[in-house]
Amino acid sequence: MLEKREIILGENEPYIINMGPQHPSTHGVLRFELSLLGETVQKVVPHCGYIHRGIERMCEFNTYQQIIHLTDRMDYLSAHQNNEAVSLCVEKALGIEVPERVKVIRTILSELGRLASHQLWWCAFGMDLGALTTFFYGLRDRERILDIFEESFGSRLLHSYICPGGLMNDVHPNFQKRIKEFIPYFRKKLPEYDKLLTGNVIFHERSKGVGIMSLEDAISYGVTGPSGRGSGFACDIRKLQPYSAYDRVDFKEILYNEGDTFARYKVRLDEMWESLKILEQLVDQIPDGDFTAKMRPVIKLPEGEYFQSVETARGELGVYIVSKGDKFPVRVKFRSPNFSNLFVIDKLARGHKIADLVAISGSLDLVIPDIDR
Amino acid sequence: MDQKELQETLSSLLPGATFNLNPQFAEAIVPAENLHQFALELKNNSKTQFDYLVSCSGLDKDKELMVVYHLRSTTLEHSCVIKVATSDRTNPEFDSLYEVWRAAEFFEREIFDLYGIKFKNHPDLRRLFLEDDFEGYPLRKDYVDPINIIQ
Known about the structure:
The structure holds 2 protein chains of 2 kinds. Chain A has a single domain (about 55-120, about 130-335), classed as Cytochrome-c3 Hydrogenase, chain B. Chain A has 15 helices and 10 strands. Chain A has helices at about 55-60, 65-70, 80-95, 100-130, 135-155, 175-200, 200-205, 215-220, 225-230, 235-240, 260-280, 335-340, 345-350, 355-365, 370, and strands at about 15-20, 20-25, 30, 30-35, 40-45, 160-165, 165, 305-310, 315-325, 330-335. A 3-stranded antiparallel β-sheet of chain A has the order 1-4-5. A 3-stranded antiparallel β-sheet of chain A has the order 8-9-10. In chain A, strands 2-3 form a two-stranded antiparallel ribbon. In chain A, a hairpin with a 4-residue loop joins strand 2 and strand 3. Chain A is globular and about 90 Å long. Chain B has one domain (about 5-120): NADH:ubiquinone oxidoreductase Nqo5 subunit (Beta Polymerase, domain 2). In chain B, about 20% of the residues lie in helices and about 25% in strands. Chain B is built from 3 helices and 7 strands; from the N terminus they run αββαββββαβ. Chain B has a 5-stranded mixed β-sheet with strand order 1-2-5-4-3. The longest helix of chain B has 12 residues, at about 105-115. Chain B starts with a helix and ends in a 31-residue tail after the last strand. Classes of the chains: A alpha+beta, B alpha/beta.
């Protein structure tokens, strides 16, 4: 006679479960292999490569003007900053000084892009934790920024607008007016974000003390951007190595020392206020002049190695170009912020529940195409 | 510390390293057998304090395969570049630096995936982006793409 026995999965030995690649809370095609004991996460192994397109290899067969269009597709929410990184690196190699007008417009675009990206992050983060209304509030305001983009560049997501030497074309005559309308509008709407989510008790329970990252871990894993600054890692490239017009604007680098999910959330919300401050200072300061420096139609970089970092909405994007003096680069490496930010998740999620893993990965603000490239 | 001073400090700390002229960073090519020891020295020495590995990339210079480390100090705010090279293309191998900077673990997996460079003492050396049964290392210059869709 058979003995009646109850088997409880994951009671004594780790139970392996796959989260993704098509899971709404991984925000793209990323797979976490979770080892669980009950509902507690023992280990997280991320599996990447579902959207690997070989951008670094493609760069080796394209000219520097063509590479711009590939960088959009890495971190599609920071398209302007990605374009700017390659453009700055090429300009540095050629020793070209771009016109003042270009510098100011590039800075404005970077900050608008950062605002749009943080808004979308805020929508999605609220939704990860079950607050569905945030999605409508965030996208309502993001739409305004995308309209400004559409008017000037004809595209809403992948702009390819900043190019080596300057800009693809001049901005629309309404550009300044639209931004001036947007700033007071968003200043009025931003406190709604706090009312809706920041003070919410359930949200505090879900985010405070969850996924604590120490400063040592942040530096050792190379976690940059708002995620690193939530742990007190002063890594803002806009302050450390100012580029474009960041040396002449007044803004604060937001730092929190708690290192938990809530701190990372607060960094991004405060950064939106700082971005508005930068926009306000620059919008009236756009000088007249050319929208591009004089460039040869074929760019050949002198032989050597060049490295340029910029601050995207998610952290430090480094572009490393090795040239042999040809019109094609020998090697282009993108040190993408999400790549480094992702792998700390194993350390953060251990000992937490699966639902907390969702909160932690949401607070790291991952964009998967930027990891896989 | 400016670049010239840093270069002098590095040359006293890294015996046997050769120095390249690089307008942007102090740059040293270190012998592969001393890589791990030098990395620890660069991180822990009070004069350098390179605690942040910005980027780690593979590089194929036709004759030799290289790994390039971009380092930055978060306290002293200076940067440098460390390189290791090997002319062995069939079985290239370097020390893994994941104990020194945790970020190196996944940068090294990426380099193993795309360049076929192995890392000694790496905890989990597998392909990162490509499938496990993928043949060849696509970022090497002698890689022939059989489908040839990107050239």
